[in-house]
Amino acid sequence: MSEIIEDIVRPVEDDEYVHPLKKEDIEGVTIPVASKPGVEYDGGEAVAELTSYPSTDPQPDWNETLKEMGYDPEYYEILEPIKASMWDTQSKDGTVQRMYSYKVGVRTKTGVADVDYEELVDQIKKHKKHKPAMIESDGTLLVLVADTQIGKPDGDGTTGIVQRFCEAVDSVEARIRELRLIGRGVNKVCVAFMGDLIENCEGSYQSQAFSVEWNRRQQVRIVRRLARNLIVRVATLVDEVDVIAVPGNHGENKSGHRVFTSPGDNDDVAVIESVADILSFNREAYGHVRFIIPEDEIYVVHDLSGKRVCFSHGHISGSGSSPQLRQKDWWKNQIFGDTPAGQADYLFTAHYHHFSINEHNASRIHFQCPSLESESTWWVNLKGEKSPPGILTVLITEDGHQDIQVV
C-alpha cells in the first residue's frame, strides 16, 4: 500500500484533534448507526469516505472537519457529493437539540507533491549543457532477409523485389561504415535468411501455379545469386560472418497443400546450403564465413555477442488474436518446455510481412521482420493495408540491442 493510501486510511488518534463540542455536550447523545464517525476505504481509488462527528452546526467548516479526522487541509480536500444526516436528540437536562452529520469523500489535492517547486525551477535554470558521451560498443550487426518470395507477381513483382534487395545490400555496406564512424565496433555480421525466400509453384493457395512469374528452378536460382552476393560483399568488410537459414511455409515440399516429406526438405534452407557449398571451395577468401543451417528443426538458436538469439520463420506458432500474441504464446511454451528457444533472450520472426518490436520484459524481446515485397494483393483486398518493405538491421551487443534500421 502506498504512503498516500496509508495516510488516507490511518486510524485517527484521540490526541490529534479537539472536537468543537464539549465532552458534556455529547455525553448521552445517541448517534444513528449510519452516522457513526469514522473513515472507510474500499481498496480501489485513492479516495476515502469520511463520516464526520455529530455537530449542532448545519454549516460546518470543512477544514475544521478534516482536522478533526486527522487530515491536514493543506494536502487533503473534500470530494462532492456531500451526504447529510440530521436527527433530534435529548440531553440529560431534557433539552432537545438537532444534530448534524456528514458523509464526504476525502482525497489528496490534485498537484500536491512532496517536492520543492522553487528548488526544481532553480535546478533547471542552473543546468549547463554538456556533451553526451559517445557509446562505444563491440557487437554483431544482424541483417535479416525475410519473405522475399521470389516469383510472386503482386505489386511490382519479382523485378521490384530484386531491385530493392540489391539496393538494400548497398545500404547494408553503408550502414556498417556509418556505425563505425559513430563509435560502434562492428566486427561481426550475422546474415539471417528468415524463410519464404521463394514463392514456390503450388501448395500455398489455389491460384499459385497460375499466378507465379517464374518456375521453381528459376526462383531458386534468383535467390541463390542474391544471397551469394549479399554474403560475399559483407564478408569483405568484417572479420566474422555467420549465415543462418530457417525454413518457411513457402519453401515446403507440398502436394495438395500438404507437406509430404520431412520439415527439413525445404527450399529456404536448401538454397542457402548450396551457397555454403559454393563458398567452401575458396576457404582462403571465405574461411571466416560460417553457416548455421538446421536439418529438421524449424528454428535456430545462436549466441551473438553474449546474447542467445532465436530465429524462426513464425508460421508455426501458438494461439492469439495478433501475430505478436501468437509468437508470444509459442515462445512461452518453449520456455515451459525448457527448449533452446525457450532459453533465448531474443526472438526474431518473419511470415507476417511487417516490422514490430515487443518487449515482454527486459530479458525477452521479440522482433517481427518486414518483407521485401511491395504489397500482398490478397491482404490489400482484405484489409486495405500495405507495410513498408525492407531488410531489418539491428546491432546486438552484450548490453542488448541498439541502432535499429530498416534498409
Outline the structure in words.
This protein has 407 residues and is an alpha/beta fold. It has 2 domains: 3-108, no CATH class; 138-406, Purple Acid Phosphatase, chain A, domain 2. It has helices at 3-9, 23-26, 62-68, 117-126, 157-181, 208-211, 216-235, 267-279, 283-286, 323-336, 377-383, and strands at residues 38-40, 47-51, 76-90, 96-108, 137-145, 184-193, 240-245, 254-255, 258-259, 289-292, 299-304, 307-312, 346-349, 356-361, 364-368, 392-397, 400-406. The strands form 4 sheets. Strands 10-7-6-5-16-17 form a 6-stranded mixed sheet, with helices on one face. Strands 11-12-13-15-14 form a 5-stranded mixed sheet, with helices on one face. The chain has a 4-stranded antiparallel sheet with strand order 1-2-4-3. α5 (157-181) runs parallel beside α7 and α7 packs across α8. The radius of gyration is 35 Å and the shape is elongated. Mean pLDDT is 84; it is low at 14-26.
Mean pLDDT level:
84
Distance between the termini: 48 Å
- Biggest sheet features: 6 strands, mixed
Roughly what fraction of the amino acids lie in strands?
A: 25-35%
Q: Rg, please?
A: 35 Å
